[in-house]
Amino acid sequence: MNLQEIESFLILYKEECGKNEEWLESRLEQVQCEQQFEPTTEELTFAARVGWRNSNKCIGRLFWQSLTVFDERTLTDEKGIFEALLRHIEFATNGGKIRPAITVFANDLVRIWNHQLIRYAGYETANGIIGDAHSITFTKVCEDLGWKGARTNFDVLPLVIQVGDRAPQVFDIPGEYVLEVDISHPEYDFERLNIKWYAVPIISSMRFNCGGIDYQAAPFNGWYMGTEIGARNLADTDRYNCLPKIAEILDLDTSRNASLWKDRALIELNIAVLHSYKEAGVSIVDHHTAAQQFKLFEQQESDAAREVTGNWAWLLPPVSPATTHIYHQPIANIIKKPNYFYQKQPY
Ligand code: ARG
Q1: Nearest CA to ligand 1 atom 11
Q2: Running DSSP on this structure, what letter comes out for residue 116?
Q3: C-alpha angle 113/82/96, rounded to 5°?
Q4: How far is CA 14 from the centre of its chain?
Q5: Which amino acid residue places its CA nearest to atom 10 of ligand 1?
Q6: Could you give the strand order of the β-sheet that contains 202-203, starting from the edge strand earlier in sequence?
Q7: How far is the CA of 234 from the centre of ligand 1 (A)?
Q8: Which domains does the chain have, with CATH numbers?
Q9: What's the average model confidence in pLDDT over 285-295?
Q10: Over residues 266-274, mean pLDDT
Q11: What are 177-227's pLDDT values in tens digits?
């Protein structure tokens, strides 16, 4: 227990949530007396939201106050945790009208091995890679635990849940929980690419740090910004590497870099992603709108007399970065807490 961290969190909570000095004193006394800090659900909810506000890599922080927090710290069995994860997926997906949410599990007890709750498997085969190369190691882990993938390019990985020192347990996500969007283009024949992506990115590999406590299992989600899918997941050469096939559909000259075929293919892929999610009624934001929303966040923070911190390299969209205001101003990458951090992979 780190009293200093607990105290600075409780002071922040007091200031922002309308508590007084008396409250703070008695709350600190309680912590001292119990020799542990057990945040109330209200404190935890505030912390999770402020953790989002403090996430320097995130361009979507305008909406930090809208985060729904599920307090599932009492769960101690794999099956119950699995069901809570399904509830999270269902709540967040909401038929396409995506709702930002986090589910917090018992600290020092629960660990989710997945990087995201919904993610595609990746396999190294003699004929090249199938699926998402980003998932190759984790996919092997799942197969070692007894799971068997169908070996399509889009096999949804199972959930791998560990409680304490017990062996991790593997659970398939029932198909009806996984909303996906087939990618099509308003003008070109992109159907023949046979690509799709899932609706909700739910990061499950980061630890949520609040008042010196690490919640190692605290999966959280927002909605996608189009470029995450169109300029990275489907475009990176070490991911789905779709640009050469798109250049073919667009009949571009791929023999010369200077034809800018990659750039043109990239733009059309990003148009296709935004178009497809819109058509499917799944929430998504384009990078220009996201940057404008981030500007509002900066305004809101300065009105509240708080300095906006950020990681410039991460905040910039990978498409047309200099068309956003973010490119043209410095931003301090100072880490404030509560926050979300990377942690060592459990496998
Ligand atoms: N970039 C990651 C992906 O493409 C998701 C990260 C979180 N993104 C978000 N919009 N909340 O899967």
Answers
A1: 222
A2: B
A3: 95
A4: 29
A5: 224
A6: 68-72, 101-105, 220-221, 202-203
A7: 13
A8: 232-328 (3.90.1230.10)
A9: 99
A10: 99
A11: 999 999 999 999 999 999 999 999 999 999 999 999 999 999 999 999 999
> Nearest 5°: CA angle at 75, between 156 and 115?
30
Element spanning 347, H or E: none
The Å distance, Cα 228 to ligand 1 centre, comes to 6
User: Residue 171 and residue 22: Cα distance in Å, rounded?
Assistant: 47
d(CA 153, CA 195): 9
Which residues have a catalytic role annotated?
Answer: 58, 61, 223, 228
Q: Ligand 1: which residues within 6 Å by Cβ?
A: 201, 203, 222, 224-225, 228, 233
* Closest to 95 in 3D by CA, of 282, 277, 278: 282
Q: CA-CA distances (angstroms) from residue 343 to 113, 205, 246, 323?
A: 11, 7, 37, 34
Do the bridges between strand 339-341 and strand 110-112 make them parallel or antiparallel, or are there none, so unpaired? unpaired
* Average pLDDT of the chain to the nearest whole number: 98
Give dist(CA 206, CA 208) in Å, integer: 7
Global pTM value: 0.98
Angle between helix 21-34 and 3-16 (nearest 10): 150
Q: Tell me the C-alpha to C-alpha distance, in Å, between residue 198 and each of 129, 163, 230.
A: 20, 27, 13
DSSP string, 273-336: HHHHHHHHT--EE-HHHHHHHHHHHHHHHHHTT-PPB--HHHHS-SSSGGGSGGGGS--B----
Exposure b/e, 248-287, CB count within 10 A at least 16 = b = ebbebeeeeeeeebbebbbbbbbbbbbbbbeebebbbbbb
CA distances from 127 to 118, 146, 239, 246 (A): 26, 24, 16, 21
Phi, psi of 154 (to 5 degrees): -135, 50
Distances (CA, A) of 211 to 116, 155, 171, 191: 25, 38, 32, 49
Cis peptide before 338 (omega within 30 of 0): yes
Q: Which two tokens stand for residue 274?
A: 């935004």
Q: How many Å apart are CA 266 and CA 234, to the nearest integer?
A: 10
- What are the structure tokens assigned to 251, written together? 């009949």
